[in-house]
Design goal:
11% strand
Length: 287
């Protein structure tokens, strides 16, 4: 990350009220709830996990596929997958579902709720920076590696805020939901969108990595019975993103996400639970 960009983000976080949009792949690199506390220490006013946006997206995917069951659809969560299809398989551009990514949906929700606050997305994907530039709701987009650099800066300059380790400071602010916490894993969209009422298992293809995505698209050309492609550009899904710090193998990373989801089910979240009514009339369109 360029020093100028880093300092701009640090200034924003420390001098203005900002919202952190944290990708659910964070357990690969950071421990919960320590990460939430540390983000508050550097100055974030609100901290949202993108699992609520994932839940909203799943609801729209389910409805769209149910209402247009003769079409073939491609998940639109991954900007690299979209770019690849647009460049290499333009005939499938029309099949990409017209629903924005979790980052954009969550940013739009945040800006609707807190219009004066800036949104900083933190995740494993370099392509999110380009996606953020196309969406006015996302003010900054950085990777987990970038966040580590920022933490190092605060440590060196002794700028961490002294705040209590209260329940409030250790939890996400709101819109927390557990079942979509596996969203960064390959195939998680299909697993969490309750497809059994609208699709058969053999009508779904899961693909991670450019080779598998290419193979899946070639199959879709031939087999029109395939109705949904759940594709992520990085191997293993978002947990294989270039902005990840961890050098662990994919199985270890998958285990960390699943353990986080398992433990989250035990947490009493009360008013923090994400409900669909909160997102009523929210613009979720990609275009």
């Amino acid at each position: 990350m360029e020093e100028k960009y880093k300092q701009k983000i640090i200034k924003e976080i420390t001098t203005n009220k900002t919202i952190c949009l944290l990708a659910p792949s964070f357990p690969v690199d950071f421990k919960y709830p320590d990460i939430v506390y540390k983000l508050r220490q550097i100055g974030f006013d609100k901290i949202f996990e993108l699992t609520y946006a994932a839940k909203i997206i799943n609801q729209h995917y389910h409805t769209i596929i149910k209402n247009e069951n003769k079409k073939q659809f491609i998940a639109a969560n991954c900007p690299c997958t979209i770019t690849y299809i647009e460049n290499q398989f333009p005939e499938f551009k029309k099949n990409i579902i017209n629903i924005a990514s979790p980052m954009v949906v969550m940013a739009r929700f945040s800006k609707k709720k807190y219009p004066k606050k800036k949104c900083v997305f933190i995740g494993p994907c370099l392509a999110k920076q380009q996606e953020a530039k196309k969406n006015k709701e996302v003010d900054f987009a950085i990777t987990f590696k970038n966040l580590y650099e920022i933490f190092k800066y605060f440590e060196k300059e002794k700028k961490f805020r002294k705040i209590k380790k209260s329940k409030k400071n250790l939890q996400f602010d709101s819109l927390y939901n557990d079942y979509t916490k596996i969203y960064p894993l390959s195939g998680a969209v299909a697993k969490t969108m309750h497809y059994k009422k609208i699709l058969k298992k053999n009508q779904i293809i899961v693909a991670d990595g450019v080779i598998k995505i290419k193979e899946a698209l070639e199959k879709m050309k031939i087999n029109k019975n395939i109705k949904f492609l759940d594709a992520l550009f990085c191997k293993g899904g978002c947990i294989g993103g270039p902005g990840i710090i961890s050098k662990n193998n994919l199985n270890t990373k998958i285990k960390k996400i699943k353990e986080y989801r398992k433990n989250a089910k035990k947490e009493k979240i009360g008013k923090h639970k994400g409900l669909f009514k909160y997102s009523k009339n929210l613009n979720v369109k990609r275009k």
